[in-house]
Amino acid sequence: MSVNMETLRTWVRDADSRPAGSGGGTEARAARQARKTHLLKEIREIRAEHRDAYGALRVHAELRGVGHTVNRRRVATLMRKHGTVGYHPRRKKHTTNPDRLAPPAPDLVQRGFTAADLDERWCGDIT
């Protein structure tokens, strides 16, 4: 039998509040929904505090720092379901940084790329 570990932990934690013999009634569902709503409010406050730049990992770390015991995947799931994502800055790709003080390479072919015989001149382009 495969059971989600977070579901199992929630079920065990809420065992005191369930009536005997019930598998989780409307009260338990309402309590879960209230916890989820409160957690989502906390997530939105943390993101607003940091100008919507934080993703699930940083929001989870902030929640843990405040004292909430919440799973990182639960934070990621709530953020994904409500369409909130972190800011992903795209860094400029640096390919070649030329040395401005170095002399240019000599032009050994003198810009003449035609050859009278085979294997007389070879050239290539590395761009």
What does this protein structure show overall?
With 127 residues, this protein is mainly α. It is built from 4 helices and no strands. Helix 3 crosses helix 4. The longest helix is centred in the first third of the chain and has 24 residues, at 26-49.
Give me some keywords for this one.
43% helix, mainly alpha, 0% strand, 127 residues
**Count of individual helical segments:** 4
Q: What is the tally of beta strands?
A: 0
- The H/E string reads HHHH
Low-pLDDT segments: none
SS-based structural class?
mainly alpha
Topology:
Layout lengths: L4 H9 L12 H24 L6 H11 L5 H10 L46
Describe this structure in a few short sentences.
The chain contains four helices and no strands.
